[in-house]
Design brief:
Helix 2 packs antiparallel against helix 3. The protein is globular. It has one domain: Phosphatase 2c, domain 1. By secondary structure, it is of the alpha+beta class. A six-stranded mixed β-sheet has the order 7-6-9-13-1-12.
Amino acid sequence: MTGWTWAAASCRGTAHERCAEPRQDAYRIACSGDDGDFLVVVVCDGAGSASHGGAGARIAAWTLTSCARTWLRATGRLPAADAAACWMLLARARIAFAANKRGLDPRDFATTAVVAISDGASTLTAHVGDGAVVARLTSSGEWISLSWPEQGEFASMTRFLTDEAGLSLRVARHDHPLDRLAVMSDGLERLALDFRACAPHAPFLEPMAAPLAACGTVGQDRHLSKVLSTYLASDRINERTDDDKTLVLAARS
């Protein structure tokens, strides 16, 4: 059977644990099409400096996944850039509505947003802020970047869906056949990305993605998701990052 198999995990960072704060990352995954041909992955990272960043991430993740699923069911094809931009604006509007109900400002719900939609032959990415989308080419087995993290004005800053200056959105279509896909929040950037080469760090990604291709199922592999969660919460990972960590790994057979 041809289709996507995936594992996903999201773990609270040790910095949030020390302060008794909740996890600020949120993610959602969906399949669409007659045979689940399209995989939709959304990963959002609420700003640690925002009082309701986690809520903003959840609103954005739910909105963007719902829009993508509705589009794919209606059209059966990848969206154009303007459609993805409309989804981001809708997520931005829903965050503003939630903030207004609580007497707060949208910046109190600041979040990044990373979207990847793929049928294995073509992939669309829509991206605000940090986090990343990387993939492995079917033809060569090489891991490539599909959407790289974006910093803000300063090295320690990034863009957010709620920025008052407007939406800093990057949308791209990639027509390369893929057999692996990974979407992550910024807590894993220093482990999964080689910033000197501006490329994915294959030795980190490949050992985790390989079991997905070998499991022979379509849809979420719950066992591998639990294994991934245990690994992301391990001392080995926490020694290198104290931020929330979200990773969705997918393989197409």
